[in-house]
């Protein structure tokens, strides 16, 4: 009878273990998915000298902007600001040698996406989004003369080939598709030519989905939240079902000959495997508490899974 009880406890411990592992994997997944992203304001790839650029480091508390050749931008710690979703850093008065690739180092040694900037001391720039544009969106390219904000006649080029001339200086692309991707420049008759910059078109749409491990997470389309929810729900159902089965089985075995051992067994059972108390990934402390409880009560769990340590 004693070994029977041990078996039951092992089944319970195994279920708990499995659920914990699944949840930890999902939480880890969540961290990967919640990738650090770099935004830029104004969102364009070309600037005149002495303009200001603000970088937004999403998902990190401190914006450490890195330039491909200059390294970490030291002025960032003077202009660093917390935002509701991360932090920002402004570079005032950019100059031509501020051209190039920028990114930030995320916690854990990963890099964010990068953006390419061209700072021009010429008289014409092409205003083109620095960040990738979603398929289907409307994109406006603007050919801008430094000395005048009035409308100018502009010629637009895609991979060096003329595509359109516009008397307003603007080129509007509706419902962009992958074929609109590429290198663009513009030519302002009389004033000169802009540098060439990439327009990147990306598929699908990012969506914001709430997830137990974090309040909000940005999922890419390849990471289907419905699958995750379904799997999680199924695991929970199986777990609750198993728990129920184990308990009733236990009752049948234990309550017949003696009731005291049954009641103590029941207590440990309900204590160690309360599914609602496990559902607390979003609060780290609670998660730790539950884990600690599992580790001390599960006993064998700690020995078998020394990697199950949460900080
Ligand atoms: C800002 O960064 C520079 C270079 O990284 C460093 O020398 C300086 O101490 C930092 N200042 C503050 C206030 O963190
Ligand atoms: C960094 O990124 C790689 C690939 O995107 C990922 O496998 C890894 O887990 C990430 N590391 C951290 C600490 O987020
Ligand atoms: C554009 O700017 C240049 C000088 O930067 C100026 O000479 C020219 O007249 C301007 N062109 C237009 C169309 O305003
Ligand atoms: C946008 O373009 C795609 C093809 O690239 C087409 O299938 C779709 O119907 C277009 N949508 C609109 C609103 O024009
Ligand atoms: C720029 O525009 C002028 C006319 O406005 C044209 O003659 C010239 O070939 C264009 N330059 C380029 C590189 O397309």
Order of helices and strands: HEEEEEHEEEEEEEEEEEEEEEEHHHHH
* Gap from first CA to last CA: 38 Å
E-strand count: 21
What is the number of helices? 7
Which structural category do the helix and sheet elements fall into?
alpha+beta
Apparent shape: elongated
How are the strands of the largest sheet arranged?
2-9-8-4-5
The low-pLDDT segments are: 27-33, 207-223, 256-311
- Main sheet? 5 strands, mixed
Which cofactor or ligand species appear?
2-acetamido-2-deoxy-beta-D-glucopyranose
Whole-number total of structural domains: 3
Helix content: 25-40%
Classify the beta-strand content into a percent band: 25-35%
- Oligomerization state: single chain
Rounded mean pLDDT is 72
Rg from alpha-carbon coordinates: 29 Å
Describe this protein with a few key phrases:
alpha+beta; Immunoglobulin-like; 5-stranded mixed beta sheet; 5-stranded antiparallel beta sheet; 7 helices; 29% strand; disordered C terminus
Give a verbal description of the structure.
- By secondary structure, the protein is α+β, with helices and mostly antiparallel strands.
- The protein folds into 3 domains: 2-31 and 224-304, no CATH class; 37-113, Immunoglobulin-like; 122-205, Sandwich (Immunoglobulin-like).
- It has 7 helices and 21 strands.
- The chain has helices at 2-33, 76-79, 225-255, 260-272, 275-278, 284-298, 300-304, and strands at 37-41, 46-48, 53-58, 65-67, 71-72, 81-82, 86-91, 100-104, 115-120, 124-127, 133-134, 139-145, 154-158, 161-166, 170-173, 182-188, 192-193, 197-199, 201-202, 207-211, 214-219.
- The strands form 6 sheets. It has a 5-stranded mixed sheet with strand order 2-9-8-4-5, with no helix packed on it. Strands 13, 14, 16, 17 and 18 form a 5-stranded antiparallel sheet that branches. A 4-stranded antiparallel sheet has the order 1-3-7-6.
- Strand 13 and strand 14 (161-166) form a beta hairpin.
- It is elongated and about 95 Å long.
- It starts with a helix and ends in a 7-residue tail after the last helix.
- The relative contact order is 0.15.
- The model is unreliable at 27-33, 207-223 and 256-311 (pLDDT under 50).
- One 2-acetamido-2-deoxy-beta-D-glucopyranose (NAG) binds at residues 123, 145-148, 152, 190-191.
- Keywords: Disulfide bond, Membrane, Signal, Transmembrane, Transmembrane helix.
- This is Immunoglobulin domain-containing protein.
- Residues 1-35 form the signal peptide.
- Residues 42-120, 128-202 form the Immunoglobulin domain.
- One of its GO terms (molecular function) is transmembrane signaling receptor activity.
